[in-house]
Specification:
It is built from 17 helices and 17 strands. The protein has 470 residues and is α/β, with parallel strands linked by helices. It starts with 13 loop residues before the first strand and ends with a helix. It binds S-adenosylmethionine.
Length: 470
């Protein structure tokens, strides 16, 4: 490690910046953001415009030769001349014991600028020793994806209560446990969720309350895993997975998604597997609640979105009634994921103006399904859990007046590596569904199917050809 990472207070410190053009301006922005006073040695005609938004007196444009400057007042020199002047600036700064950075020249620099993630009080700096700014930026993107957007707000909240907490908890161990309880528990979740007032009130109460538990209280993240492709996880879902102690997951959750979870998180399958029944909703509720009561960070991971045919509402009710804190993290529901992959616009200007998601669970039961609600030709109908009920869906819709020739699709294992899409007409949909070797799958009925990429790619829309393409 040649460069030791340090956080330097530049506010009101005077820094010399040398050079014109984009590189100098990029450093100028950074120095101004850190509150430095910048003496900018430049002949750049656009320099006055570049400092127009800076607070008055924070930047000084100097047209004198920087080699003649008084180095005793500078805490650092940044040189972006891009020519031999850089070598001279580096030598001069070193002669005056002033730290120097020469842009893109780590060999001449005594300090370098890292790639930075700036979330207010939380700053992450990534360095490659000057070897590769591109690599540093790539790393920054990855780390950025893992950091909650409001992490700086949480840090600011903790800074505000730091002194009060230290006074209330004299023993260092108790103080550490108190802050762990804040960061890992409901208070942290409230701050990261933007519920600022709630978080603040809860910290104040926890400081004053003598019975604040020493162990962080557990909580449950009810997380939507999306339809299968791990890249469709939301950033918040990824953060929850990376923080989890234990994950209870359904059968629709793919191995690739579980791979994104913290390595040592315990993984517990609770869905139906290979035709075997699952442990049942009551048992799932109890096990999830029990894990939270043990103080664990629990993720209840469901395919798609937890509230779309996922029984997420029931689980939320149960946990709330049990007094357990729950954070709901939405997921990309199967219809959205499949539609995007198939290039199928679910709504289309005047042609498809209503979108309906139904479950086919009661499709064969006429008393429970009123098909007339979906007969409107401008309605796009997406049927979940419908592979085995496609003939009932077809018959119900046609009997209710939907045109038998309406474009229709069967979308199988959408966004997974083995996804497969079949298209045809409504009166062929049961035959198409019968071609599915394995689910999960959706049925889609509506004119918009004819606008999809998969429709365009299929030369003739009948079952025999779909079968040949399979
Ligand atoms: C119990 S529901 C759960 C739905 C989930 N909560 C969601 O928002 O996507 C299960 C049904 O979702 C649909 N489904 C889930 N993942 C799918 C995928 N990758 N491709 C096609 N359909 C899928 C199938 O209709 C499956 O029978």
């Amino acid at each position: 490690m040649r460069f030791l990472p340090l956080f330097f207070d530049f506010s009101r410190a005077e820094v010399a910046l040398v050079g014109d053009g984009a590189a100098a301006k990029a450093k100028l922005r950074l120095l101004l953001a850190a509150g430095a006073r910048v003496r900018w040695f430049t002949d750049d005609e656009s320099a006055p415009a570049a400092i127009a938004d800076a607070p008055r007196g924070q930047t000084d444009i100097c047209s004198i030769d920087p080699r003649q400057a008084d180095y005793s007042s500078f805490v650092a020199v940044v040189s972006a001349a891009g020519n031999r002047l850089d070598d001279e600036m580096a030598a001069l700064a070193r002669a005056h014991n002033v730290p120097v950075n020469v842009v893109d020249r780590p060999d001449l620099s005594s300090f370098i600028f890292p790639a930075i993630i700036d979330r207010g009080d939380v700053v992450v700096a990534i360095g490659t020793g000057g070897a590769s700014p591109v690599l540093a930026r790539r790393l920054r993107q990855r780390i950025e994806a893992l950091l909650p957007a409001r992490i700086g707000d949480l840090a600011a909240l903790m800074r505000r209560f730091r002194q009060r907490a230290a006074q209330a908890k004299r023993d260092a161990g108790a103080l550490r446990r108190f802050w762990e309880h804040v960061v890992d528990g409901p208070i942290g979740a409230a701050a990261l969720g933007g519920r600022w007032h709630e978080a603040e009130t809860a910290v104040a109460r926890a400081i004053e309350h003598p019975h604040t538990p020493d162990n962080p209280s557990g909580m449950v993240f009810l997380v939507g895993a999306g339809p299968g492709d791990p890249d469709l996880l939301t950033l918040r879902a990824l953060q929850a997975l990376q923080n989890a102690d234990i994950i209870f997951y359904d059968e629709l959750v793919t191995a690739e998604i579980l791979d994104r979870a913290r390595r040592d998180a315990k993984r517990v399958p609770v869905g139906k597997r290979a035709g075997r029944p699952g442990i049942g909703q009551d048992a799932i509720n109890e096990r999830v609640a029990e894990a939270a009561r043990q103080g664990l960070k629990v993720v209840r991971l469901k395919g798609g979105d937890p509230f779309i045919f996922g029984r997420g509402g029931e689980e939320l009710d149960y946990l709330r009634q049990a007094g357990i804190e729950v954070v709901v993290v939405p997921g990309v529901t199967a219809a959205m994921g499949c539609a995007a992959e198939a290039g199928l616009p679910l709504l289309f200007r005047n042609e498809a103006t209503q979108l309906t998601f139904i479950s086919a669970q009661h499709a064969g039961d006429e008393a429970k399904t009123d098909w007339s609600k979906y007969a409107d030709p401008k309605t796009t109908l997406v049927v979940y859990m419908g592979l085995g009920k496609a003939s009932a869906v077809r018959d119900g819709l046609i009997a209710a007046g939907r045109d038998a020739g309406t474009p229709a699709a069967v979308l199988l294992r959408g966004t997974r590596q083995d996804s497969k899409y079949l298209v045809g007409r409504l009166d062929e949909i049961a035959a198409l569904a019968a071609l599915a070797e394995e689910g999960p799958g959706l049925l889609v009925v509506g004119d918009v199917v004819a606008r999809s990429d998969i429709w365009r790619k299929t030369a003739t829309h009948n079952v025999e050809l779909a079968e040949m393409a399979a």
